[in-house]
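Appendix B, Record 12. Input sequence as logged:
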Amino acid sequence: MRPYLRHVRPALLILLLALASAAGVHVLARDAGAGPAPEASTDADLAGSRDLARRLRETDGLRDVTVTVRDGVAELEGVVLDAGDRERAEQVASQQPGISRVENRVILSTRLSERLALATTLAMDKLTRLIAALPLLLVALLVVALAWWAGRWLGRRAGQRIARRNWQSENPYFASLMQQLVQWLALLGGVLVALDLLGATALVGAVMGSAGVIGLALGFAFKDIAENYVAGVLLSIRRPFAPGELLRIDNTHEGRVAALTPRATVLVTHDGNRLTLPNALVFKSVVLNFSSNARRRLEFAVPVDVSESIRCVHELAMEAIRGTDGVLADPGPSWTVDGYDATAITLRFFAWVDQRESDLGKVRSEAIHAVRTRLQQAGISPPRNIQFTASLPAAEVAAPPVAGMTQAPADGTSRGDTSVNRDLDAHLAAEQRAHAGEDLLPGEAGPGRDR
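Logged structural output:
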């Protein structure tokens, strides 16, 4: 084995040397063939770097930015004062032909002196522009002032026109509302013209859009307040009631009208208390106005014993009602049988009262008193709570007069007080004075009112 190895080793050594020589020749040939490419790439990167550097120097705020281009990749370095300058540098580099990618290593300057210098420069630039635009700004302000004056003049003319047509007597708030509407519309037109002169029409769109969004948010937030205000305006225009009139709202709240404010309707109850109702509730509810018609009907029921004559009772009662102060002759009193059972016959009587001259409650009380007295004088018996099993003589049935009882007039007529009730006048006047600055109703009731 050893003699054989002695002959193999020289052969292997010669083979290795031959392979090494071939590999060296191949490497030299490859290097020789690829030698010109790096030189050409370097020249293109250098030219691109110079061109890009020149463009950066020509751009404001990018003079301190340096650029290096390697294999189509632009590396930006340096310091700028504004974030917008940093983005602009990257945009300029990306637009350079031959640049495939940009590595932006530009940083913002943190030096106080440079930041102050930039702020001063910006402030001076804006001040210079403002001074240059000062004549145009004065013209725009003059346009707004003229629009405000024209709006006030047109508003007054509109109010005077409404007053000449007697609309204000029907609705005093309508004239003021129209005057303010015309005034604000004219002012809005002047502002739009002024902004157009200043070249700020885009700002108008932004402001109007923002106002719409804000208005929508406020509308949801203050929905109830806005609803009451709109209802107050509509009530002042439609005027379903006037101050001093007696109302029943939603079949629950009753009182006399003291004032109609933009947000609430103020009533004075029969007890003299203030009742404040939201305008939206009043606008949507059923409102019963007892005072819209000067004439109002009263009614009351009179029970009599089943043994009495209905015709006789009704004639006596109608005579007594006609003689009561405050009862109108046209339309005259009327009656009907309201009920009949084993214990009593119930007759219901009706009469009309002029609320401008008489109080309904007082006239009703006097009419009941007159009917009772007249029936008592005629010997008409009321219903008996105790059923008798035997008939008694007439002398024993009639009860003797009670000592101290006031005897009614022989003719059965009543001369009681039926004048208009003025108990709440002081309360109404106080409430009207308290809401005088915001009352949407006129100070006095219109024709045909009880106040």
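The chain is about 55% helix and 15% strand.
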